[in-house]
């Protein structure tokens, strides 16, 4: 008999940093409190952006070269989905709580 794996999706991670590496945002779901400044750092050799998935969203980084960083302070609770506009298959979410 085999044991089953949990099969659960990755749980949200708390903190204030997101790494961009291997063409992915890590963690894919970050949970922070309102007022937290989150910093994304590009660890890939290709450029990436941090851009809100929905039009009018608050995230609008320039193309980040290797080791470049972008920061944003989330002031309101909500779920903020974002993508890399250069590589739109790269998606992630920041969940902001009170």
Automatic annotation (TrEMBL):
SUPFAM superfamilies: Cupredoxins (SSF49503)
Domain of life according to the entry: Bacteria
Subcellular compartments: Periplasm
Keyword terms, alphabetized: Copper, Electron transport, Metal-binding, Periplasm, Transport
Domain Blue (type 1) copper: 18-96
Alphabetical list of InterPro entries matching this protein: Amicyanin/Pseudoazurin (IPR002386), BlueCu_1 (IPR000923), Cupredoxin (IPR008972), ET_Amicyanin (IPR052721)
Molecular function (Gene Ontology), one example: copper ion binding
Co-factor remark: Binds 1 copper ion per subunit.
Listed cofactors: Cu cation
Keyword Cell membrane: no
Residues that span the membrane, as ranges: none
GO CC aspect terms: periplasmic space
Entry binding sites for Cu cation: 48, 84, 87, 90
Gene3D superfamilies: Cupredoxins - blue copper proteins
Entries under PANTHER family matching the protein: BLL1555 PROTEIN (PTHR36507)
Protein name as catalogued: Amidase
